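Journal club prep, shared notes

We agreed each person brings one worked example of a sequence with its structure written out as tokens. Mine is Penicillin-binding protein 1A. I'm keeping it raw so we can talk through how to read the token line rather than staring at a rendered picture. Sequence first:
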Amino acid sequence: MAKPTFFKRLMLWFFISLSAIGALVALTIALVIPSLPSLESLTEYRPKLPLRVYSSDGFLMAEFGEERRAFIKIQQVPKKMKNAILAIEDRRFYQHKGVDAVGVGRAIVKNLAGASHEGASTITMQVARNFFLSSDKTLRRKISEVFLSYKIEKNLNKDQILELYINQIYLGQRAYGFGAAALVYYGKPLEKLTLAECALLAGLPKAPSNYNPFTNPKRAIQRQREVLKNMLRYEFIDQKAFEEAMNQTLHFKESRQSRDLMADHASEMVRQTLYDQYKEDIYTSGIKVYTTIKKANQEAANEAVLRGILDYDRRHEYRGPEKIIDLEGKKFEDQKAKITDTLDGIEEYNGFIPAVVIKAESKYVQAFTKKGDMVDIKNDGLALIQKTLSDKDLKKRKIKPGAIIRVIQKNKQWEVVQLPKIEASLVSMDPQTGAITALVGGFDFNRNKYNHVTQAKRQPGSTFKPFIYSAALEKGITPATIVNDAPLHFSAAETGSGMDWDPQNYDNDFDGHIRLRNGLAKSKNLVAIRVLKAIGAPYAQDYASRFGFDPANHPAYLSMGLGVGSATLIEMVTAYGVFANGGYLKRPYLIEKMVDSQGQVIDQANTMFQNEETPRVIDPRNAFIMTTLLQDVVNKGTAQKAKVLGRSDIAGKTGTTNNQVDAWFAGYTPSQVAIAWIGFDQPKSLGKDETGSQAALPIWIKYMQTALKDMPIQNYEMPDGVMIRKIKSDTGTPANENEEGVNEYFYSEFPPHNEIHLLN
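Then the structure, token by token:
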């Protein structure tokens, strides 16, 4: 028998191999097809959307979740975005049936010819892989991918498939989907992107880490240009659009989180509340929380607190640079790499940008910032460091080339600042409803997450006095009552503290016999103590609880009249709200409504939601008369700076604790009540003259300049049961028609006394 020729042996081997491969493929298909997953996760797509927190007027404050997502319907995807994706990923998407045979053939030819390493994976195949399969390069996975793609195409139309791809694909920076990527990389929604910006995003799916514009800007731009060339080649754009896009300089968002409004402490309050209810599920729930925060108010509060901190530091000595780099007398360009590396390791807080001094003169400083800008600082921007710049002894100057400082930019002007040791906070609410309109818990949430509005229990000082006076009105004491502003001495037995006590006025000045109204306006400590002694500390302690104060935090001693207990800002804004709204205790709330991922409003049975009907806790006459007393604090007392607002409906009280440890201002109108505070976390003196009027009131004023801007003046209506009588200003007794005097308010049942009503 003749031996088979080489050709016949080759053909035999070929057919045997082909048969084996065919059998293997058939076996694989037989195993794969029955095991293909259900398409329920596609047909009923529920992306893992983060918890998002918004202001009442719809501005994003924060998002919480492991994955950044922003689901967008296919109808809302800009055409240029869709075209950019198709041009680079699957230009025959609307022609093929899930697997592009033409594309596969083209890829094989190009890869064999060594012209490129071109893939043939379609958008449908990528959807199949992203939802159901691993990225393992096995035959079974490849076959599964092909058959799943056909199955997907059979059950979904092209727009549905593209919508899934656009929302599910991973694009780096924890961003899933192009809607989220637009916010992460550019800080704006997808519909506001330019063609050039869309092209860069379209290039990310191939390798998000390799083409990340934050870490690999050159590669990202190269990939973007490849996308634009494909768009031109396949006639998605014309030559003019191509050239414009190629010439556009891209600017990427540098902040860590995409948001419209900085309100970190308020956002964290919302997160914690929802976490207590839903646990880890909140991070993938897609719940949208609309708070009571108003954007304009919150921005004004942010700026007011920041300015209050900056002004405080200006009034005190500059502590010096954070570090010194030895520049060795070399030129800036020779030292730029060293400077940049050093600045990269220093964190930025609340816009306080690290910078290295390059030049320092008596009225001019040039500095290079962490953001890569060379900035010139002069005039008022040097206020914090002017003293050291003017020092004639060059060796004593703290500011010199190589010094690491902090700078901020306000109204296009640069200012030298320093990371503060002081803290400050502000909270405001609508006293008619309890809705919190602004909340700043401290200088910077990322530096100190402690919320000074809700967590810090501080001595309220003289801001507590109005609640003593309010209690006194119920005991028959009137604004016309004469109180002796003179020294007092209490023995250890009387104080209950084991020590004698000789209380003093802040200025160590005594006015003798004065009307109660003037005693509150001037914040006279001895007047407050005599009033408290007359009505009894236990009664005042119980009465103050009507305003929401915990009696345990305000022991029933005479020192309570000076505010030596403890209270938080949220308690103070609640309490002052009672005066502002005519006697109702409105508990502050932060959450207006919650909406699930399907747009349905969620049940709002939660303590942070709006109030139900609340009871009146003090007589409306009391609230009215107290408001007139607190208006005099503004008109002729310790808060006269507030007259700059030019309003007749402002009432409030300054507060300064012993040795100027805490400084407060609590003030209100019928539509807005706000509390400002400033102090150190570890209590110590703010310094000489750092009173509530000096340190806290300017914060409140700056906030109210915005909060009350478009609100008409609302004067309080006098309720029934209040009478106005003319009294003698020196005795508080009734004045005849022909006598000089002043008008005063009284309860109908407590008219002015014919004899001097004296607390001696």
